[in-house]
Design goal:
The structure is a homodimer. Helix content of chain A is about 50%, strand content about 10%. Chain A has about 525 residues and is of the alpha+beta class. Chains A, B: One of its GO terms (molecular function) is malonyl-CoA decarboxylase activity.
Chain lengths: ~525, ~525
Amino acid sequence: MNKKALAILMRARMRPTDPTKLVFSPLSNDVSQMLPNSRPNIEHHEDENEKLNKQRSFEIVRESMYSAISMNKTQVLDTVLNDFSEGYFSLSFENRTKLLLTLAKDYDLNRTQVRELIKQYLGIQLPNGGVEDEAFLSTFYRIERNLRHSLKPVYEILFERLNTHPGGLKFLTILRADILSILTEENIPSLRALDSYLKEKLSTWLSPAALELHQITWDDPASLLEKIVAYEAVHPISNLIDLKRRLGVGRRCFGYFHSAIPGEPLIFIEVALLKNVAQTIQEVLWDHPPIPESEATCALFYSISSTQPGLAGINLGKFLIKRVITLVKRDMPHISVFATLSPIPGFMQWLLSKLASQSKLAQAEDVSDSSTDGFGLTFYENLLEPEEEKALIDSSGDLAAGKNGMEIMLNLLTPTTHEWANSAKLLSALRPPLLRLCARYLLQEKKRGKALDSVANFHLQNGAMVQRINWMADRSEKGLCQSAGIMVNYVYRPENIEEYAQSYFSTGHIHCSYVVQRYLSSTDMSSTC
Amino acid sequence: MNKKALAILMRARMRPTDPTKLVFSPLSNDVSQMLPNSRPNIEHHEDENEKLNKQRSFEIVRESMYSAISMNKTQVLDTVLNDFSEGYFSLSFENRTKLLLTLAKDYDLNRTQVRELIKQYLGIQLPNGGVEDEAFLSTFYRIERNLRHSLKPVYEILFERLNTHPGGLKFLTILRADILSILTEENIPSLRALDSYLKEKLSTWLSPAALELHQITWDDPASLLEKIVAYEAVHPISNLIDLKRRLGVGRRCFGYFHSAIPGEPLIFIEVALLKNVAQTIQEVLWDHPPIPESEATCALFYSISSTQPGLAGINLGKFLIKRVITLVKRDMPHISVFATLSPIPGFMQWLLSKLASQSKLAQAEDVSDSSTDGFGLTFYENLLEPEEEKALIDSSGDLAAGKNGMEIMLNLLTPTTHEWANSAKLLSALRPPLLRLCARYLLQEKKRGKALDSVANFHLQNGAMVQRINWMADRSEKGLCQSAGIMVNYVYRPENIEEYAQSYFSTGHIHCSYVVQRYLSSTDMSSTC
């Protein structure tokens, strides 16, 4: 990197360490932080004139949107599309919402035409596979194609045109981020239909074939590195030394780039070259001078971040890991282990809600136990083993009260001060149940047959297995909040990737190591390992 | 280029100069020349065993095609897609046809499902734009989306999966080239429907946004340069010196590349840097030492070639010229004129058929003239002016007979020996009518409101104007066959490109220079200039 670029980077505002902002949520306001002017604050004291101006600028943008859709396909289009996207950025969030609703409703499909074509279509017989009149068949296929085309909303034209327009793909991702913002506030069916259509389009345009994998290094432009700092979603980059470290000896960073969105990766992955699979994130981020690369035997994927909130729900990482493994193996044949050190973002949320509901049920059961019939209407499950419950009650002392072990655990884990993490006694009492329940969460808690945890599901569908669950692996505020500091190593065995991905896909089966398997009591093991 | 690459290139078979093979027709067998094994000859004496083997290998490929479509989406897919595409290449043309028909018919859409969804769709009312029940609207949009999806043929899955598979996009273009070959032999409606669907898909994937413009130079790999030699469709490259020349001083070559088809351009354009707009192709291809680039004022586009027969009908050149102009202007601000020296591929075909039909009509008119009523039932048009006709009759001598000027002209121009081009007398007699009729062909002969000539239509829709028509500009066999040796200069004026493209698009209006305009008699000028 040259001096000028470095100077620019030094001035670049580093990401704030406020943990609530760590995850770059597609629905958060972060988009506007990235783009000056993208979502101007709504002024509280606007006078009539201002209102009129806003209305006028809304109408101008709507007009350019209309032209962008209805114009003949020539090169004048470029100007119109520029007007439209620039105009869009100048609108208030309120007017953007209004504009997007106009698009969703007024540029929907022509339903009169659809019904007309359906009538024609139903009027002719299905081809029966036998010898048919050629002209008849041609007509049949033509009507079918026309019907298919008529079912495409008119706004597809705008999406298609923007996609082939310089800067248009990026603009569409911003548009979608706005749409997702609006939809979290209110469920508007027409806008949701538009979103689902746009998402389908974006998925096609951003297929792995259209993405290029590049290594990101310290020699890349500051404008690119600044984005790595801004978008790092898993382990925030705190300063320049930290960034340089992640791109230096013993480290790799790879990104998926799209030619239409130059200078910023859509997703990137950070890799550490180590002697052994790391058990804590601290040793990856802050270890002493890294080992010589020639001594490394393990490539550890310790962070994967998507950069575009508007691409939420589109799986860009699908082939990323497989490609990175291929690249690393080619350059460094002495590396034979490919593992991750991954967060478990949904563990605490799941556990706390489980503890809350079960401890309530336990109390209800107690009440019904003491009633005459002796049959509870509800069946509760004690999430804790008897010896775990005893240890918790013994060690909790003044810190948390509760009618049973689960309630004590809930009261210990809920406060965001995480005092339990500073008490040796509590740590040792919480360790066995937390590790055991974490294994259960990762391996047995499913949603539509797939792992409930989003990161687990990501790696499992890519063909990984659950190798090891690590206690106190991430002591950061965020790590304690998400997963009581627990992290997990997923391992990719190149020779098993395809088999594991296939069995996970078809049966939901999760491969895991013997160590992880042991956390589960033998009676619960039907669906795993 | 290094020595090894050069050696490889030296050995590369140069394109044969057989003029019938000059145009790299999408429907020709050239595909198989490019790809060893792509279309094996059908053996004439195959015994029962061989037949059985062929049948068996057909079934294996069909099986892998089936798996490629029906498999769950995992990484095993890669292997299956490889099996399928390798298997496909091993099939005889006959079996490929059989396979493609299976794909078109058996993996078409599920019409029972379509009718079921249509029934559901017709069962609910249109949203009327007023306040509606949210749940109802959600259902409505869901059914609409399902109907839209159900109208997509099942084979779309195969296309989509191939597109995201390494080498798959290239494979799809070869598949389509085969489909087009089959369709020229027989019009099979189901296969035509498949082709039109595949073409739509390819157009989306090959949008200008997905294409990268690169300059091709002598430093590029021999494997790439070999393709330039093989694919040059306008002015065949005869030897290594010729190729080196086209990439050297005073010349540029730019190609559109797609990241999924590395190492070969999908379309490329050759540019000469000159002092003046060239009037003959010979001065471009064989001029003496080129002028210093700093003295050039004109960039002449003298050849545009598409390389993939399977991409026929997909306009890849749309933004190519505009982008090249921008690039050249940026690097060489002293260049202010952007022109082409273009073939007129359809002129002779149009002229000969016009001469044949009109001279027949003329004879019929003569007969009816000599009959008693004096009113002919047909109206013929003498394509020649009186003085042109006289000059032709005077100069034709023994070379061609005929009852009138048009028939003489027809008989002079038809033989592929082109003896007229060696006679000074005939050249001077033919020059005025040929230039005049060529202007008429370019400016006034339309098909669906657009220029009949495909090259003219290409440049006009890109925003060019017709600048000059050049006599004896291409004396090659091909030039004489296509357009009696005439070529045309189209000119791109950067400041008018958008306006001209727009007016051509919306009204079919063709801009031309005063010189070209003069060829047309004043009475005929309504639709031009």
